[in-house]
Design goal:
Two copies of one chain form a homodimer.
Chain A (H helix, E strand, L loop, with lengths): L2 E6 L7 H16 L3 E6 L5 H12 L5 H8 L1 H15 L5 E4 L6 E3 L8 E4 L2 H8 L3 E5 L2 E4 L5 E3 L5 H12 L3 E6 L20 E3 H9 L7 H10 L3 E5 L7 E4 L5 H6 L12 E5 L2 E10 L4 H11 L7 E3 L8 E9 L3 H9 L2 H4 L3 E5 L2 E7 L9 H11 L6 E5 L2 E7 L3 H11 L18
Parallel strand pairs in A: 1-2, 1-9, 2-6, 3-6, 4-7, 9-11, 10-12
Antiparallel strand pairs in A: 4-5, 7-8, 11-12, 13-18, 14-16, 14-17, 15-16, 18-20, 19-20
Helix pairs in contact in A: 1-4, 6-8, 7-8, 13-14
Chain lengths: 431, 431
């Protein structure tokens, strides 16, 4: 008998029929001899609707009260799911984040989990009940106020709870069949990745793959908790995210699939960034530090940084970096305020860019990956604006209009598709 | 500086505009130098909408989960109200029933308050914040599960919290101007009752006056907590419900109003009952006990009971009683099962009845009240089917079609109207 934590996103419990379908899946897992703990998001768009209500009464609602409001969403979905389970003859027992022992800091709207003390969940399991836990929410250790963990954080709740309970694995149910070698909307031949390591998944998530949130994967890696991302609309296997030694449950589920390591796991794209270039920065010690201190002070996370070799004749250089598009105006404002101090010549802003990345632990031991990558782009006539690399990832910035062509060309160059898997609708998961 | 608990019903916070209007009233009370604690119901019909969702997933949802679901309603309204208060420059701090220390038994859907431990409310007051407490909900002392107190129980939450905090008085805001001498929809000349005693208000509530719930008045009487029932849509004084010695706050508010005790406080009607008659019951010791034990075993509360004098020739008598119309079928079924044992001849059921009552502490010392009452009905040509009395109330059962005429005739006979007050829309309060 395995202990399984199942997480269902908002699209899986969008209405009464969805809730009843999810209840049947949970009951089937239970009847197959597993102990099941469920984590659930709010129904469909209900969180957005609550947020709209808040906007109607206040232009700047306090974080504590916004968290109190938004946590009503999971309260509704988890109670309904428990009722639907009861209707199938088993006991569903719903718990708020606070009741489930999800202890956080006090940063309303983006609280971090400090500890999970799931005493009531364990009691429910001992009683033979199926605990249904609200995702996305917790309670502050110091103020005892209700907190939320930020968008997409129900996945993190699930993994944290699975780790605290010592679960065998954590299933993340969403509206796609798992993680694919590329976005099937762009590359119809893209195939499902049956198994991927934590660090590859981290790079994929950081590079724009939206199926799993970065934070959830970080948590899973830290605790060595295997994740199975799969669709709540089918019974197909999804993608296992694990360390390199597959656990028993995974090995069984992967029977018949090749276990050898591919060089490249997948291709990811991200259109959410913008590029800022400082032209003619004096090539002096400390200038870059001054610039990025100003960006950090504006609470902006930067991604790639490129600095040209200084032109000897002028003693000046150009510095480009990418940042989230939403922070574009704030970033430009911070740098404009710095012009006299730094003495750069011009500031350029470009949000018509896209980032394309290949990710694969196999590239560590295979030279020539960047040559294949850049060659594929050259053959497709695509200009590379910036390059950055990690040990298991290569990313380039290209023109926004070239993103789809680049993804298709690179996917083909690394021979990632095989046409076996049918492309499915590939959207963001619920929170 | 007074400590005031204000309760706002669902109709007062039905939408964003309502919430903002209520926030202004709260802030005005605070700025007038009072410490304010607010109890709020769910917005408009939102509790019914949640209940509909439950019906969609399960024909018989478990009480624990139904309570978890329904308590989402106040969570939303209280957070929005706190935001609207913040937008006016003060701090609103929302608390669930559990956070506010409303400790109950474990009867889901109709839990009773065991204790109120409002430590966090007192801390909020000390901090200068305005605590906003969810009405209708609490937490079970034994299971730590979320409970609800039943329909209309937000009034009870407010009074219980006021008592635990040692508040000066409790304001119940609703959509009518207070308690009237009769339903203004039936008697346009009905006037607002400026002051009424707990026991009169208990009789009025028990006889069908829906402005305040019976349970809330019982609680207020037990703790001697003055209640001011008034409209959130006007600034007019409402009705003070107190013991016979008015407190300082009330005396000030009632300045200029006659303090002498009227003989009759008001006329109430109730169309929610049915009448069952057992014809030809053998006149033996213990028969009535047997009959009403069967009714009690079916968890039915009976109201009036009338037993005719036994006819000496037959040794048989008739017994009639009234019960909530919703329990009519269950009551008949319980009695049918008893026919052989009791040996009554026939069972009659009538739900086309109405109850009309006059209530007034003054009737204790004024003879002739029943003569005036019955005389008014006779003049109006209305037949009386049953009569019951308490020390401060006389009730009759009449034909359903005669109820409005009876109320008007009795109101006029006791000279209760004076035309000073304008009739207002007179509906049920929120919960």
């Amino acid at each position: 008998m395995a202990l399984v934590v199942q997480k269902y996103g908002g699209s899986s419990v969008a209405d009464a029929d969805g809730i009843k379908r999810v209840a049947q899946r949970i009951v089937a897992t239970h009847k197959a001899g597993n102990a099941v703990v469920v984590v659930v998001s709010a129904m469909g768009d209900s969180t957005d609707e609550l947020r709209d209500l808040a906007d109607q009464v206040s232009p700047a609602p306090p974080g504590r009260e916004l968290d109190m409001l938004l946590t009503a969403g999971e309260r509704i979905s988890m109670a309904l799911l428990a009722m639907a389970i009861a209707n199938l003859g088993l006991e569903g027992r719903s718990f708020t984040g606070s009741q489930a022992g999800v202890i956080t800091d006090s940063m309303h709207g983006k609280a971090r989990i400090i500890d999970v003390t799931p005493g009531r969940i364990q009691t429910a399991l001992t009683d033979g009940a199926i605990p249904i836990v609200a995702g996305f929410q917790g309670v502050s250790q110091t103020t005892k106020d209700i907190t939320t963990l930020g968008r997409g954080a129900s996945d993190t709740t699930a993994v944290a709870l699975a780790a605290a309970l010592g679960a065998d694995y954590c299933e993340i149910y969403t509206d796609v069949d798992g993680v694919f070698t590329a976005d099937p909307r762009i590359v119809p031949a893209a195939k499902r990745i049956p198994r991927i390591s934590y660090e590859e998944m981290l790079e994929m998530a950081a590079c724009g793959t939206k199926v799993l949130m970065l934070r959830c994967v970080e948590y899973a890696r830290r605790y060595g908790m295997p994740i199975h991302v799969r669709s709540s609309f089918s019974n197909r296997d999804g993608t296992w995210v694990t360390d390199t030694t597959p656990p028993a449950g995974e090995a069984a589920a992967m029977e018949g699939e090749a276990m050898e390591q591919a060089i490249i796991s997948g291709v990811a794209q991200d259109r959410g960034e913008a590029k800022i270039t400082l032209v003619g920065v004096p090539d002096k010690v400390g200038e870059a530090a001054r610039i990025f201190r100003a960006i950090a002070a504006a609470a902006i996370n930067i991604d790639m940084i490129v600095q040209n070799v200084s032109a000897a004749a002028t003693g000046r250089t150009d510095i480009s970096f990418t940042l989230p598009r939403d922070d574009g105006h704030a970033g430009m404002a911070a740098l404009r305020a710095l012009q006299d101090e730094v003495g750069y010549e011009r500031l350029l802003y470009d949000d018509r860019i896209g980032k394309v990345s290949v990710v694969g632990a196999g590239m560590r031991s295979h030279p020539g990956v960047s040559a294949t990558f850049f060659g594929a782009l050259a053959e497709a006539g695509i200009n590379i604006e910036m390059i950055s690399t990690s040990e298991i990832r290569i990313s380039v910035v290209v023109d926004e209009n070239d993103v789809e062509m680049a993804v298709a060309a690179v996917h083909s160059a690394f021979d990632l598709g095989d046409g076996e898997e049918q492309a499915v609708v590939y959207g963001g998961s619920g929170r």
